[in-house]
Structure formats: C-alpha cells, structure tokens
Amino acid sequence: MANDSNRFQAIISHCKEYGFIFPSSEIYDGLQAVYDYGQWGSELKKNIRDYWWKSMTQLNDNIVGIDAAIFMHPTTWKASGHVDNFNDPMIDNKDSKKRYRVDHLIEGFADEQVAVGNKQLAEDVLSQMDALLAKDDFASLKKLIEDNKIKCAISGTSNWTDIRQFNLMFSTEFGSTVSADDEDNKVYLRPETAQGIFVNFLNVQKTGRMKVPFGIAQIGKAFRNEIVARQFIFRMREFEQMEMQFFVRPGTEGEWYKYWKEERLKWHLSLGFDPAKYRYHDHVKLAHYAKEACDIEFEFPIGFKEVEGIHSRGDFDLSQHEKFSKKKQNYFDNDIDPATGKAYGNYIPYVIETSIGLDRMFLLVMSNAYTEEDLSTAEKPDSRVVLKFPAKLAPIKLAVFPLVKKDGLPEIARNIISDCKSSFRCFYEEKDAIGKRYRRMDALGTPFCITVDHQSKEDNTVTIRYRDSMQQERIAIDKIKEIVTAAIA
Ligand code: ATP
Question: What is the CATH number of domain 5-69+194-366?
Fold first, then answer.
C-alpha cells in the first residue's frame, strides 16, 4: 500500500465490498456522514458492543447498565450546558462557502506538515492552537490560520471569515398540534448518552441499593450536527456511544480518575493491539467544571486521533440537575470517616466518566485488522487481503466447506454447523474451489475454516485452516468446538 491515505481508502472500499458498511440510503446518493452497517458489519459492531458491556457490567460488580430514551426533557440540555455551550468554533471560507471546525482545519494542516517532514512546525502550530483555544482567543486563532496560509481544500484560498460559535445539537418538535417554531415543544436528539445516566442516578442508586463508589453504563445512539464530517465512520452525524459514569466520594476523584485512565487503556490492549499505536492526550483546555481530562488516542490510517475520553467531571452534572429540576440529588454515605469518627453523611457524588465511540472503535478494529499480504512465489504472483480480527470480535468464527457437493460431504459439514451454531456464528459454503473459499473468509476475517473431504467419512477427521498463519492440520471432528471456543473466550 503506497501510503496511509490509500490504505484508508482501501479500508473504506473493503467495508463496502464485503458487507460491513454502506453509505446510508445509497440509492438516493447517500446522506453525508451517515452510514448503515451491513450483514458482517453489524455482527462485528455487536461483538465490540458486547465485549465492552461485559467488561464494564459483568466483570465489575459495582457497575450496572441502563438503556435510557434518546428523547429527554428539553430542560436536561439547559441544565447540562449543551443549549448554551455545545458549540464549536467554526470558520467559513468566503470563496467556497465551506465551513470548518477551527481545530480540525488546523489539525489537518499539521498532518500535512508531518507528511512532508515539517514535524516541528506541526507541533508548534498545534501547541499554539491548544493555548489559544484554552483562552477562547478567536482573533489570534484566525491570525494563526492566516499566518500559516492555511487553505480551504475546495477553493484553495485563505479568504476566511471571522471565527464564530455553532451549536451541534439537532432538534425536532414533540406532539402533533404544535407549530415548528414553538420553543416550548422543542426536543433535542441527545448529543451524548451521559445525561440519560445522570437523570437516572437516584433511580438506579435507590432501586439497585448501590453504594458509592459505583458506576452506571450505557450504550446508545447520539447525534451531532458535525460540520467537518468527511472521515468515514470516524466522524458521523448519527453514531453510538458506550459511556460509563462512575460516582465517587468527593476527595477521591483523583485516584479514581487515574484508575479509569489506566483501566481503559488496559481494555484496549486486552484485545491484543500494539501498545505503540496508543497514546494519551491530556487536555490543556478543560471545561470550566472539569478537574482533569484526557483522550486515549489511536494511530488510525489518518493519524493519531481520539477514540475515547476520560473525564473527571466533579459534581457539575448532578448539581446542575438538582438546580434545574429542584429535586435533591444527594447520596447518604454511612461509611465512617476516620478523620471525624462520624459517617460521611450527605453529599452529591463526584463523577469520573469514560466515553468511547462504538463506531470509532469499529474503525480502530478494522484499521488494525486490515492487511494486504504478498504471497507471490517464484512460480506465480499471489496476494490476499485478510482481516486479522481478534477471534472474539470476528463476525464469523467458523466456516465449514465440503470439498465437493456430493458423496455425503455436505451432510457432514451441515452436522458440524448444527453442533456449533448455538455456541458461535458459523458459515456454510460449497461453491468454488477451496482456495477461493479460504480467501473469501480471509476477507471477512474468519479465524477458522474447516474442510470436509472423503477421508472425513472414514475416520471422522477434517482439515482446519488457520486464518493468520494459513497453516492447515488434520483434527478430529469432535475437537472443532473446543478449539474455537477456547480461541474466543
Ligand atoms: P471529537 O473531538 O473527535 O469531536 P469529542 O471530544 O467531542 O470528540 P466526546 O464528546 O468526548 O468527543 O465523545 C466521546 C466519544 O464519542 C469520542 O471519544 C468518540 O469516540 C465518540 N464520538 C464523538 N463524536 C463522534 C462522531 N461525530 N462520530 C463518531 N464518534 C464520535
């Protein structure tokens, strides 16, 4: 693959060609930054979702999950600050009329500089940008763009407007009798899942008899009217988040922040991914309520980018909901404070949030798995595209092929599938030569293929072929389930 941009394009094409991801409503030419997951993409996405859910809820006895509605009372978003503050600084190019998020425009410029060897300039520009964003100094940010002659990709000019704020929430109306401009009936499509957790904090704490520290996890859709939305599923207008809010006693948030920061990176590495492809990015610009915040970044084919955020949010969200709803959000802690010898008593818990995009994680898994291999020999040129997914995430775990469509071999193959399909996803295929069938399964990332041949009828053995090494060996039919189950545990 010549370069990373080609690699990114190759991944996008592969996703479409093999039924992972299609542009939304493609027959109408698609809808910008909205995508549909196909037959294998939805399996992969579900496996990532399940892996996160299990790690958070099943493996932590102090974390429970919920599933809140996408629509929430409009006051939620006033309390959370999204109505007033969920803005991004934007700049328009006067010639192309194209609008950019200022940080993305400057980051794009920095990436280009790195690509042509000007690493130092890229770093300088990014650190100046961080400092100016932290101060909301829009005039100097515009000057930074102009001084570096940053151009619009469409017009090729540096003819920029001033920088302005732009709200990213989508809104719609509730009910059938209201007019569209009736502010009281305006509801928003949630821009994050977190608020569904905060407004249910006491419901879950009381009914679940939860004791601080404890967490509430949720997976669900979120919507943002992203301006620069041209990086495939990296930045979408409709996407899915996997968030966990961990409620702690005030004063302990520093140690819990550190704990979750490390724990979340461990989760990524538990999938066998290369640690060198990960790094932390500690935030310089903190929201006014935030105590600490960082991103876990991954080296995508489009460069190091955020995949997950860890934020120490203090008691901001619960206090705001208490203020706007006029409902107490206190927790009574009856543990004894060694300093006073008395119970800690009433307080609003502090929160550590872990927030990861499911679609972004999908792209991470896909980018990591996508491999083009040259298998040429002196006799003939050959190559393959293989998706080296961790076996537990692979959409199909086991493919079973009868060597020929007769002589009772399809029946044996079908019996193997009947025996395994309640434990994991299997796939049956009898068309084409075996080599071609293997390559098709490589392209879908299936870790194990089984071929049933005439010898299978004699001694109940089959050939198992391993995706990554392409090694083949003879095994007993009754060992198949055990081998696959062990690999996906
Ligand atoms: P970015 O700076 O990339 O816009 P963010 O800091 O606004 O992201 P958060 O609000 O912290 O993101 O959301 C948590 C996670 O949700 C992100 O780490 C990312 O994985 C995911 N996410 C956010 N926006 C999008 C989007 N438009 N499309 C896909 N995933 C997203």
Answer: 3.30.930.10
